[in-house]
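Worked example 2:
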Amino acid sequence: MDNGNPSDFASLFEKSLAAMDKMKPGQPVTTTIVSIGNDTVFLELGGKSEGVLDRAEVTDKDGALTVSEGDQITVYFLGAKNGESRFTTRISGEAANNDLLESAFKNGVPVEGSVEKEIKGGYEIKIGGSRAFCPFSQMGGKRQEGDESPVGKHLVFKITEYAERGRRIVVSNRAILEVERQKKLESLRDTLSEGMTVTGTVKSLQAFGAFVDVNGFQALLPVSEISRERVEDIKAVLTPGQEVTASIIKLDWKAERMTLSLKALLADPWEHAREKYPKGSKHEGKVVRVADFGAFVSLEPGIDGLLHVSEMRGEDAYGNQRVTVKKGDTVSVVVKEFDLKAHRISLAQASSVESDSAIKGYLDTGSNGDTYNPFAALLKKK
């Protein structure tokens, strides 16, 4: 910086003081972070003047900074002291006098208070030397059974009603959380898109799927998208708190819905299915589902074939075909039809692979041995 003329510095200082005099306590200002010190954040006010903000207001619960130099930030004017403009991101403590609280109400400035106790219809909140009321419906997000009581906690609120010179103050914590949620949503819109791979944490399990937290956004992982195999019990494959990596298969920002898939990141077994399961080939599989018309047999994870009831060796007392297998059975089947486009395989019941191997061994023994084997000879004739 050049030395300049002392009169110029005096002029700038006077202009800075004049600008500060024009600002009223609680007035919102959107500015840029110039630098960050050990205890103070310096803000640009125009020209060569700066404002200050306590560093503690822009750190998380672990003490990590949530902003960087050059970031834009909206702050609220507290007042000037010793030629220094002081700002805050929320009004709290001794600064929360009636004038500042009224200004906070008019300008939508967040206020910080402690939840003193539960009273009829809500909670009593202490903000500086004032008392406020927060209805049950305006405390936190959606209330769920087992939620921890907010009593004793320091939270941030928006003043929704200010009357009788501060003798009647109504506040909302939910309004603050909604603003934060919308900010996160806007940030996610800029960073997430369908087809992306994301990492999230399983929050809860339902019969139809799992709810996964992805950077603060609740996404759904349907049970049908967990694995190539049929998932009978979601609790057997996922647990709350588990970290998962999945693909975003659907995004609906209007409805605020995100759908994930673990299955989409797995190799598609149908890519090489035609070579592995040609028509007439014999395989062993496990029965995974039984219906009146037949049984579905898993040949490998993600590939099931239908063993129709007409292809089973069994009849009921009236001579009608009946399903002769049950879920969990291992069966030997032969591929009758293969439709790659529709991902369908039709199966027929066959003799077991073990039986075929035993017969082959028996035939080989009969033809190479020194003794006559009438059973082998009979099979050869056929």
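The domain at 269-350 is CATH 2.40.50.140 (OB fold (Dihydrolipoamide Acetyltransferase, E2P)). Residues 6-20 have pLDDT under 50 and may be disordered.
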